[in-house]
Specification:
There is one protein chain. The chain has helices spanning 31-40, 66-80, 83-96, and strands at 7-10, 13-18, 24-28, 45-51, 54-60. By secondary structure, the chain is an alpha+beta fold. The protein has one domain (7-82): Aspartate Aminotransferase, domain 1 (Alpha-Beta Complex). It has a five-stranded antiparallel sheet with strand order 1-2-3-5-4, covered by helices on one side. Strand 2 and strand 3 (24-28) form a beta hairpin. Residues 86-106 are annotated as: Disordered.
């Protein structure tokens, strides 16, 4: 496995990267989750060779649903992002949530 395409990182850690085939995304996942997805949707997901001992999920981008891809990438981010980045992100998300005024409540 070589990194020939775009690599998405959080800090120094690789979050996801384009596979050599140019149509699949590789994402580090837990073995159980990767196997479950591969069995449920073999056309879309398959397990790839491990990178540095970390199991990888190969996601065929032409077949994956946007919601599934979003969930997988969000989980990978939670697993790989440094804790201080996660804390700053959750604080920013809380600040960005709209607050309802009493007049707007149903």
């Amino acid at each position: 496995m070589s990194l020939t395409g775009p690599v998405f990182r959080v800090g120094r850690r690789r979050l996801a990267w384009l596979d050599e085939d140019g149509v699949s995304l590789l994402v580090p996942v837990e073995v159980d989750e990767g196997e479950m997805l591969s069995e449920a949707e073999p056309r879309t997901f398959s397990m790839a060779s491990q990178a540095g001992g970390c199991p990888l999920l190969r996601i065929h981008l032409a077949f994956v649903a946007e919601a599934s891809l979003r969930r997988i990438l969000e989980q990978a981010w939670r697993d790989r992002a440094p804790k201080w980045v996660q804390r700053s992100r959750s604080g920013a998300a809380m600040e960005a949530e709209p607050q309802l005024d009493e007049a707007e409540e149903l």
